[in-house]
Amino acid sequence: MTETENVPREAEPVLYRTTVHWAALLGPGMLLVLGGLSLRAKPVAALVMIGLAIIWGIFSIHNLRASEFAVRASKLTIRIGFPFKRFYEFPYSQLAGADFHQPALGVILNFGKIMLILPNRKVVVFRLVARPNEFIERLRTQIIRFMQENEPGPTDGGT
């Protein structure tokens, strides 16, 4: 091990960060309410629904806390998922563009899906992202900055 390997690398600063939106808890919440309303009519089925809602809610809360969409100076990092954690790292050289979509409820509650466009025209989609318009605006700014810095400059013709 050399001395340079012992020196900790400085972490790249996060320029903008967002997470999964709290609307991810609406599904477990609605199942819990539905189970509570049907408790008198069908108690066994209602208890099963309530149990599933609680388990689903625990997973959703953990996913909310563990998720991160981070725009950094040279790359985009995405960490999502529970119980199956997924980590994505997209250097700006691997991104051709980015876009977002907000449904009607997403406009009201400020969540939506983001779409990352890769150079081979493949689109990677992430849903229930909080503040997708701000996130995509910052991401596009970094992609444009990266492309301008790395575009080939004019060559001297031997004047």
Strand percent estimate = 25-35%
Outline the biggest β-sheet.
4 strands, antiparallel
Level-1 CATH class name: Mainly Beta
Task: Calculate Rg over CA atoms.
Answer: 22 Å
User: What's the number of extended β-strand segments?
Assistant: 7
Shape designation: elongated
Secondary structure class reads alpha+beta
Helix/strand order, N-terminal first: HEHHEEEEHEEH
Approximate helicity band: 40-55%
Which helices and strands occur, and which strands form pairs?
Blueprint: H1 3-6, E1 14-18, H2 26-37, H3 43-66, E2 68-72, E3 75-80, E4 86-91, E5 97-101, H4 104-109, E6 111-117, E7 123-130, H5 132-150
Antiparallel strand pairs: 1-2, 2-3, 3-4, 5-6, 6-7
Helix pairs in contact: 2-3
Write up this protein:
- With 159 residues, the chain is α+β, with helices and mostly antiparallel strands.
- The protein has helices at 3-6, 26-37, 43-66, 104-109, 132-150, and strands at 14-18, 68-72, 75-80, 86-91, 97-101, 111-117, 123-130.
- The protein has a four-stranded antiparallel beta sheet.
- Strand 3 and strand 4 form a beta hairpin.
- Mean pLDDT is 87; it is low at 1-8.
Question: Would you summarize the structure shown here?
Answer:
Helix content is 41%, strand content 26%.
